[in-house]
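Weekly sync, protein design subgroup
Attendees: M.S., D.O., the rotation student, P.L. (late)

Item 1: inverse folding check
M.S. brought a backbone from last month's batch and wanted to see whether the design step gives back something sensible before we order anything. D.O. pointed out we never logged the input encoding, so this time it goes straight into the notes. Structure tokens as presented (270 positions):
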């Protein structure tokens, strides 16, 4: 039975070390509480995972004027899509939104963001291809201040966490945003792809070390029954999981709710 639990956890991408730790915890509880019903054991597992995810859980915050959200991550994880979906959410709430096309590596990237801006009724600040991404972010904050818009969403280029020059560039974007508006960025979100597995843990480690993350977005959760990697990320870095991406449409972005997530991962029938 414990082997089954361990397989369930590892299969959900929780990682071997955390899986062993959780199974050991449950083993001790079963002994101490003299549990015999296997259904209760499954409930215990959910309890333990929920406790990890719910501890110090902080939802997305918009404390600034404007609030600046910096979105980072490796290539292709869903950064631009997440920015577009967030723009949609904030526009639905009646907020003014500025998108910063700080992915200046490819002209197509700014174009992709401009399409999201049009679709959602946000403004888009972009420079030419190859421009300094920090300058784009700076201008976007200034534009939001000038027009009294509430939110600035900064889309950045996908970068391999192993490339130190690219990580340094991210540090610069971060610092320039801080200089343009003290206290900004108010959120620095790492987007991870739910289908990539354990490598996301390494991504979180390096991005967190480079710029200090405030939370994680788990994208492409619709493409996998896994997603347990966020348990490992939360456990290792105490980073709250803020949002989940569940599709490619504007409305396919949800707040992360630990209870619902655990039910989807380990509920009956999983
Ligand atoms: N199914 C699904 N697809 C998604 C989700 N989020 C993003 N995608 C898709 O993933 C692909 C990459 O998304 P982008 O938003 O362009 O990713 P990115 O991180 O900005 O990529 P780069 O800028 O190239 O690093 C696109 O085809 C998106 O439609 C999601 O939650 N679910
Ligand atoms: Mg992108």
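Designed sequence read out in the meeting:
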């Amino acid at each position: 039975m414990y082997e089954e639990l361990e397989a369930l956890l590892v299969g959900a991408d929780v990682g071997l070390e955390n899986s062993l730790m959780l199974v050991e915890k449950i083993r001790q509880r079963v002994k101490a509480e003299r549990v015999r019903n296997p259904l209760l054991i499954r409930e215990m597992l959910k309890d333990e995972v929920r406790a990890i995810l719910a501890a110090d859980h902080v939802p997305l915050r918009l404390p600034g004027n404007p609030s600046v959200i910096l979105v980072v991550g490796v290539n292709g994880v869903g950064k631009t899509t997440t920015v577009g979906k967030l723009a949609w959410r904030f526009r639905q709430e009646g907020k003014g939104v500025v998108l910063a096309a700080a992915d200046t590596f490819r002209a197509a990237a700014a174009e992709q963001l401009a399409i999201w801006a049009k679709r959602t009724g946000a403004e888009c600040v972009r420079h030419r291809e190859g421009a300094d991404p920090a300058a784009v972010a700076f201008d976007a904050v200034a534009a939001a201040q000038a027009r009294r818009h509430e939110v600035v969403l900064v889309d950045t280029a996908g970068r391999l966490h192993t490339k130190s020059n690219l990580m340094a560039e991210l540090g610069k974007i971060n610092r320039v945003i801080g200089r343009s508006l003290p206290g900004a960025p108010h959120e620095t979100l790492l987007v991870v792809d739910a289908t990539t597995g354990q490598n996301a843990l390494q991504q979180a480690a390096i991005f967190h070390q480079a710029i200090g993350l405030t939370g994680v977005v788990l994208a492409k959760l619709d493409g996998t029954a896994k997603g347990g990697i966020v348990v490992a990320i939360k456990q290792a870095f105490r980073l709250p999981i803020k949002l989940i991406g569940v599709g490619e449409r504007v409305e396919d972005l949800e707040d992360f709710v630990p209870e619902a997530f655990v039910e989807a991962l380990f509920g009956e029938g999983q």
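Discussion: The CA atoms of residues 171 and 211 lie 6 Å apart. The mean pLDDT is 95.
Action: P.L. to compare against the previous round before Friday.
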